[in-house]
Amino acid sequence: MITVVIAVAAACGCFSLAYFVGDWGAGWSVFAGVLGFGVFQGIAGFLIQKRVKAEMERVQAILLAGQKRLQAKMQRWQIRPPSSVAAAQKEIFEDTKVFVKEALAQTEELRKFKPWVPLMGRQIATAQLQLSWMVKDFKTVDRLLPQAICLDPTMSCIKMARLYMLEKPTDEIAKVYRKAVGRVRYNGNVLLAATMSWIQVRRGDADGAFKTLTEALKKSDDATLKRNHETLMNNRVAHFTNSGLGDPWYSLLLEEPKVHQQRPRSVYR
Fold first, then answer.
1. Average of per-residue pLDDT across 113-128
2. CA angle, 236 then 240 then 245, to 5°
3. pLDDT-derived band of residue 257, with 50, 70 and 90 as boundaries?
4. Count of H helices and E strands in the chain?
5. What pLDDT is recorded for position 268?
6. What are phi and psi of 219, to 5 degrees?
7. How buried is residue 11: exposed, middle or buried, by Cβ count under 10 Å (0-12/13-18/19+)?
8. Residues 164/198, Cβ–Cβ less than 8 Å
9. pLDDT of 15 strictly over 60
10. d(CA 232, CA 211)
């Protein structure tokens, strides 16, 4: 890394000045070198992270602007409904692809920081994977998944969902789940447990799903997890649903929200 090389050079310079010019002695000269290394790394890291944050905020601004346009369109649909739910969903998806494509292009600006920031390549891959997932570009998702950083629950759930779509063994998915759930705090396991138990139910392992939820409820008081736990306890598997989690659940693309189109009422006089 360029910053490390320059920091080492700065440390050597500080040591040399202290030892050969200042005649500080070996101990104090080493201290000066370490101090020079730390100060340079701190300043350089602060300035670079500030620029990286600014670039990421530009990506977020593109997404927020796109989502606001979608919300405005849906509000107009309340006055003049579209011809059908399918047509509306298709239009929303096409509009989403437009601003996601713009956001993806913006993430390319982060590549200039790769020589300076450790793991920047993996951070870029993670951001691009999440954007590609939004528009169901699974070819790109599969290419980026080995490079992505799965430290937060959402990214881990995306990985679990994709493995499920690819019909990978449940044990392989459970391995991702266990690794992710071990990192979260109280109630941070909700989406993870909901995803894992849903997969188990879909694959005919209601007992496994019940055990997953039993363990999960030791670290959560989420209403949806409780409801599904009681559902499985009473052998009512058909009533198992994660709909209570709303958008975070549906963003995993494992299920689509049920949309009921309102029929216009006839007015008789």
1. 87
2. 155
3. confident
4. 11, 0
5. 34
6. -125, 20
7. buried
8. no
9. no
10. 10
Q: Is the pLDDT of residue 7 over 70?
A: no
pLDDT at residue 47 tops 90: no
Are the beta carbons of 131 and 100 closer than 8 angstroms?
yes
**Radius of gyration, alpha carbons of the chain:** 26
| pTM assigned to the model | 0.79
SS3 of 217-242: CCCCCCHHHHHHHHHHHCCCHHHCCC
Q: Kindly tell me the burial class for residue 151, based on how many C-beta atoms sit within 10 Å of its own C-beta (0-12, 13-18, 19 or more).
A: exposed
CA distance 252 to 106: 23
Amino acid residing at 82? P
Fill in the DSSP letter of residue 148.
S
Q: Reduced to 3 states, what is the DSSP secondary structure of residue 252?
A: coil
* The predicted structure's pLDDT at residue 73: 86
pLDDT in tens, 197-227: 999 999 999 999 999 999 999 999 999 999 9
Token pair recorded at residue 258: 């049920």
CA dihedral 243, 247, 253, 258 (to 10 degrees): 50
C-alpha–C-alpha distance, residues 20 and 14, integer Å = 10
Terminal alpha carbon distance of the chain? 79
Other Cβ atoms closer than 10 A to 246 = 11
42 class by beta-carbon count within 10 Å (0-12 exposed, 13-18 middle, 19+ buried): exposed
Amino acid at 249: W
**pLDDT score, position 114:** 82
Closest by CA position to 146, among listed 165, 130, 125, 167: 125
